[in-house]
Write a structure and sequence with these properties.
Layout lengths: L17 H21 L3 H12 L5 H10 L4 H41 L17 H14 L4 E2 L5 E2 L1 H4 L30 E2 L5 H9 L4 E10 L11 E12 L3 H16 L5 E8 L2 E10 L16 E10 L1 H4 L9 E9 H9 L12 H4 L4
Parallel strand pairs: 1-4
Antiparallel strand pairs: 2-3, 4-5, 5-9, 6-7, 7-8, 8-9
């Protein structure tokens, strides 16, 4: 029995009684089962469904047209009953196969996507601390180990704390509009400015605290510089101050030596060169042997073997007059560390602008 046999009438097939109808529909069911067994995919199922349940040329449609309608009156009931049973069987079998195909597909997908929890986990990339932040923390760690405290102050300052109380005279070039960012102020009022260094916290701290004083002041500072590889209008500084009885220049030099060796390595040596700062006397520039050539001389240190690190010195007695410290009884030293510069030396970074561009290729190097 094949699907094409449905094109013939029951008379042509020699079906004369109800028993013949039952046998004929049994053969049709066998044929359907054979075709169903061969269709194991979703596409095959769709083809089989169209072949048997299609409205125009499906097997069940042709059986209805060629077997039920032209059959003899005495066979119509048997043919109709057998047709209904066949239709119900085909629909149920197709639905069962559809569900089985979908279940198999889901299981295949699950097996493909299943995570093997016995495998090592995937390490997700995490963010890292910015190199400037790492330098801040390293410097703070060193000075905290020496008994210093970390303090913070306002970024918007008054000329008094930024200049006058630090013994910087009224007509000093640093106070000019070409060097300092001044804020607009009402007529007759004192202007505010963006601090040019973190040194104002020297005075603010000594106003509130009697000696001994040992502080470092990390923070942002602002100056009117055009951005390039070594300059920026905003950068970071750490001011340091130590005031007590009987602090000498030897104490200052020992502190500087300890810090430089802790930060750049025990092989680094330091030297002090005379310099000038309004709020320290004597004032010095602190140099260190070149970290790139070990003091032998290279292009970075201009063949000198030395690199300038920061400015420092003993606190000028004139500064004590602004905070009512007895300059005959107390002494101390101060220093100002440029965080960007020290970071450049520690990590061999040749362009200060890289700190502020947020390029992950650059930042990932410091994870």
């Amino acid at each position: 029995m094949t699907s094409d046999s449905t094109a013939k009438t029951l008379a042509e097939l020699g079906v004369a009684d109800a028993l013949g109808v039952v046998r004929l529909f049994a053969e049709v069911k066998v044929q359907f089962n054979a075709e169903l067994e061969a269709k194991q995919s979703a596409n095959g199922w769709e083809e089989l469904r169209g072949a048997w349940l299609g409205r125009k040329s499906g097997v069940l449609t042709r059986v209805t047209e060629n077997w039920l309608k032209p059959s003899k009156p005495e066979l119509k009931r048997a043919v109709g009953q057998a047709l209904n049973e066949l239709k119900a069987y085909v629909e149920a079998a197709l639905e069962s196969r559809r569900a089985a195909i979908e279940t198999a597909g889901e299981q295949t997908a699950l097996a493909r996507e299943r995570e093997d929890i016995s495998l090592p986990g995937v390490t997700r990339p995490l963010g890292s601390r910015h190199p400037l932040r790492q330098t801040f923390e390293e410097i703070e760690r060193i000075f905290l180990s020496l008994g210093y405290s970390v303090v913070a102050g306002p970024e918007m300052e008054t000329p008094y704390y930024n200049f006058e109380a630090l013994n910087i005279p009224e007509h000093h070039p640093a106070r000019d509009n070409m060097d300092t960012f001044y804020m607009a102020a009402p007529q007759g009022a004192s202007p505010f400015l963006l601090r040019t260094h973190t040194s104002p916290m020297q005075v603010r701290t000594m106003e509130k605290q009697p000696p001994p004083v040992r502080i470092i002041v990390p923070g942002k500072v602002y100056r009117r510089d055009n951005p390039d590889a070594t300059h920026g209008f905003m950068f970071h500084q750490i001011e340091g101050l130590a005031v007590d009885t009987d602090i000498t220049f030897c104490d200052f030099k020992g502190t500087v030596d300890y810090f430089v060796r802790e930060f750049l390595g025990p092989q680094v040596k330091t030297r002090l060169r005379p310099s000038y700062f309004p709020f320290t006397e004597p004032s010095v520039e602190v140099d260190a042997t070149c970290v790139f050539c070990g003091g032998k001389g290279c292009n970075v240190c201009k063949q000198s073997g030395w690199i300038e690190l920061f400015g420092a010195g003993m606190v000028d007695p004139a500064v004590y007059g602004f905070v009512n410290y007895d300059a005959k009884k107390f002494s101390g030293f101060a220093f100002g560390l440029g965080v960007e510069r020290l970071t450049q030396l520690k990590y061999n970074i040749n362009d200060l602008q890289l700190y502020f561009q947020n390029d992950v290729r650059f930042l990932r190097q410091f994870a």
